[in-house]
Amino acid sequence: MTHLSSNLLLVTETPPGTPNGFGVTLECMFREIDHQVVYTDAAFKKFGDKLGYVLAQVPYHPSGRFLLSFLAGQIPEWRGKYSSSWLKKHLSEKFSSVYAFVYSTECMKYAHWIANKSKIPLVVHLADHSPEFERPPSANILRCATKLVCITEEMKSMYEQTLGRKDIEVLQNGAEQACSEIASPRPPPFNEQNPFILCFMGGLFSYLHGDCIEDVFEAVSQIRKKTPWIEFHLYGQRQPQHFLEDLVHADGFTHHGIVMPLDRKFEIMEKAHCFVIPSSFNEEKHRHYRYSFPTKLPELIASGRPILSYGPTETATNRILETNNIGLRIHDRSVPKLVDILKNLINRYEAYTIKFNQIEPNVLETFSANSVRIKLNNILLSN
C-alpha cells in the first residue's frame, strides 16, 4: 500500500480518542496517517489540551463584547465570520488537504473556509445525518467537495439523490485485530457463580434508543424472576444523564458509565456472552437513526459473540447483519419475543457460539481496521 507523505488537517467536532463513537472512529481511521487535529467543540478542551490538539471553538459566542477579540485574532469565529489572523497564528503549516469529519453544518462550513483559504482539497465525511446538510448553502459545499464520504450505505443513497453525486464513498469504524483475539466467553452451565452477561456498549441517547431499550430491561426483568443469574451490563454515557435512571439501579442491571482508557473495551467484551443493539421503534426517531451506524458493530462482529439486534428492519445495523447473515434480529416491538429469544439463546448457547464463530473470513476482513485504513488512504491518494 502506498502511504501519504504529506500532512493532512483533520477538522472535527470531536477529537480522535475521545470515549464516544466519533472519537473511536477517528482513532481507528487516522492511526497510520500523518495529520494534525482542529476540533470545534469546547466541551472536549481538557482532553484536547492533553493530546496537543488545537481548539477552534466554532461557533463562538455571538455577544458584541467579543468583537474586539475577533478583530485581534484571539478567537476563530464571530457571528458567521472567520478570522484569518487566528488561523495563521495557530495553523501556519502547509497542509495537503482538509478532512472534515462532521455531524454539524457549522463545523463543515469552517472546514470549507479553511480549505478555500489555503487553496487545498476538501474531503467531507458525514458522521451523522441532519436535515441541515440538505439545505443550501450546506448542500452546495457537499456538491463541491473534492471527496464526499458517508458513514452508511443508507446515507450514501440518500445523498446521491439529494446532491446528484455518483462518487460518494462509505467508510465506518473498523475492528482492530485484538477484537478477534479475545478469549471465548465462559461456557454454560450458567448460575450465580457464572452469570449470563448481556452487554450494551456505546452511548445511550433518549432520542435514539428510547422506545426500545426499555423493552430489553423489561425482558431481562421477566427472565430474572425464574433465572436470577442473567445480568444486563451497560457501558458508555447516557444523554440526558437521567435517561433510564429508574431502571439502571434495579437488581441485575449495572450501568458502568464511560470506561477509560479505550483499550479496556477488550476486557469488557471478554466478559460478555451476548451484545445487544437497540434501535428505536418510534417513527420520528427512526427516521433519523436509520442513517446512523453503531461504532462498535464491527468490533462486536469480530468478537465472535452472539449479537441481538432489536429495531426496525431499515436500520443500517440490520441491513449489515442481514446481508452477512449475522445476528439475532427482532424487527417488531415485542417484549415476549425478546424474552423467548433470550431464553432460547441461554438454553442453546454453545450451539449459537459455534454458529457465530463461523463468519466468513472475507466478511471479517471487510469490517477490519486494516481494511478501513487502506480505504481511507486510497480516498486521500485519489484527491
Features:
single chain; 2 domains; seven-stranded parallel sheet; alpha/beta; 17% strand; 383 residues; Rossmann fold; six-stranded parallel sheet
Can you walk through the features of this model?
Helices cover 39% and strands 17% of the residues. The protein has 18 helices and 17 strands. The mean pLDDT is 92. It is elongated. The chain has two domains: 8-174 and 368-381, Rossmann fold, CATH 3.40.50; 177-366, Rossmann fold (3-Layer(aba) Sandwich), CATH 3.40.50. A seven-stranded parallel sheet has the order 3-2-1-6-7-8-9, sandwiched between helices. Strands 14-12-10-15-16-17 form a six-stranded parallel sheet, with helices on both faces. It has a two-stranded antiparallel sheet with strand order 4-5. It has helices at 21-29, 45-51, 67-71, 84-90, 105-118, 138-144, 153-163, 177-180, 206-209, 213-224, 265-271, 283-289, 297-303, 316-323, 335-347, 349-356, 361-366, 369-381, and strands spanning 8-12, 35-39, 54-55, 77-78, 81-82, 97-102, 122-126, 147-150, 169-170, 196-201, 204-205, 230-235, 238-239, 253-255, 274-278, 307-310, 328-330. The protein has 383 residues and is α/β, with parallel strands linked by helices.
